[in-house]
Amino acid sequence: MSDTTNASATEGKIYLYKRYERFWHWAQAVLIIFMLITGFEIHGVVAWLGYEAAVRLHSSAAMLLIVLWIFTLFWHLTTGEWRQYKPTFKKFDAMIMYYSHGIFMNAPNPYRKTAERKHNPLQRMTYLLLLTVVSPVIWISGLLALVRPFWAEMGIAGVLSLEVVAVVHTAAAFAMLIFLVVHLYLITTGPTPSAQLRAMLTGWEDPGH
To answer: Which band of pLDDT confidence, cut at 50, 70 and 90, is reported for residue 3?
Structure first.
């Protein structure tokens, strides 16, 4: 299936999600879930791999995710897909009403997806918050913890404490976990519980949902 057909219609559906888009989405999801699990083990909440292995694999997954994000950032900039995340308040109130009330009353979704506008206004604001606040806090705090042995050479040993960095990192990770739980719930709210999941696997989705 060619990505040039991203706006083509077939049987009432349009090709919304390109191959690389689906790849980075699922690769990112796997890495984030793995990091959440190993992070919980580092904090003693679960027992699976052992503390040392959990720390090592957590750090390795973080490095892989950084590489994935670098490639994905390049892809968004070169394809123009970064425009999908530009915030807008058009129909913002309508989407809040839909998710807070209408969705439970079987009301129609007030937002219609297109290949040029895949995310509704509430999704755009959520993704913007993740990209500009939650993710940077996770990465900065995580990298600071990773280079803890070099704090003295960096001149920050007397400014930061590992406890504070760990708390900030954990708080941001919980914010990511909350997003993941809500995200998993919302993907079941399409015309069928598996419709939106199938769209992210095949790329094709009914634009009316």
So the answer is: very low
